[in-house]
Amino acid sequence: MKSKNLFKGVFTALITPFTDYGTVDYAALERIVNFQIENGIDGLVPCGTTGESPCLSHEEHDRVIAQTIKFAKGRVPVIAGTGSNATNEAIRLSQHAEDAGVDAVLLVNPYYNKPNQEGLYKHFRAIADSVSIPCVLYNIKGRTGVNLETDTLIRLVNDCPNIYAVKEASGNIEQMSDVINRTPDDFIVLSGDDNLALELVKRGGDGVISVASNLFPKEMVNMVHSALEGDFEKAEKIEKHFAPFFKTCFIETNPIPIKTAMAHYGKCREIFRLPMCSLENPAHRTTLINSTDEIFAAIERGEM
């Protein structure tokens, strides 16, 4: 089994770029993967929320994961999003990802059907038991309608040795702290929110699965690694520059803002899969690009 330290730091929740014809743009994906790795990212997460995974066909989902592994060439870990609201579908996706060579799978709470805590336990345990690679649970009540309670998480950690980590995107920093305090010392707790990443590390967390690092991998790594090394003054200085951008990344539903910003700077086309679409409010585009430009200006001034 892989070292748990492999899953510390900054992991980019990759966008899925599309062509003008609406198909997956694998050439752009390769450029994005190389851009991430060349700028020091700790790992990659294809087919998560930011990757518009609910809008991908099963065939596309499998291929995006396989191609990300191919493009990464073993240079950084790949954690593939393979969650589903149907347990048997999540098992199939996870087993395919394992066969493709991922380092771990990311398993989101089942969405829409809102299982109780026993249902969540049985769901995650069935998936963990079906693979031999590490599993990262993904708790995001705002998207799924159900919270993975800490008692249930502890039960899963005790019963499933390959559940290594949790991506905590509940938005509740006290719950996140409770998870840190109650799980084993080597259990990995990653923030699912860029704006809470620094505070989570201060409380003993291990990093972030980041939206902002799609465009700013080097700077996000600098912020989080500084915090992990105890240099909170440096990390706070970087975070101050990023605060407006973190906010505008969610000015409308993720991944609309981050993909719009990436398209503005030539990283991809501004194309989404319905029901996702371009920014609805024209003023939001101005706010987004202004906040992005401010970060680039700070980088040019050597402030990050």
From TrEMBL:
Residues at the catalytic site: 138, 167
UniProt keyword annotations, A-Z: Amino-acid biosynthesis, Cytoplasm, Diaminopimelate biosynthesis, Lyase, Lysine biosynthesis, Schiff base
Reactions accelerated catalytically: L-aspartate 4-semialdehyde + pyruvate = (2S,4S)-4-hydroxy-2,3,4,5-tetrahydrodipicolinate + H2O + H(+)
Subcellular location: Cytoplasm
Keyword Lyase attached: yes
Family: Belongs to the DapA family.
Listed name of the protein: 4-hydroxy-tetrahydrodipicolinate synthase
Organism listed in the record: Bullifex porci
Originating gene: dapA
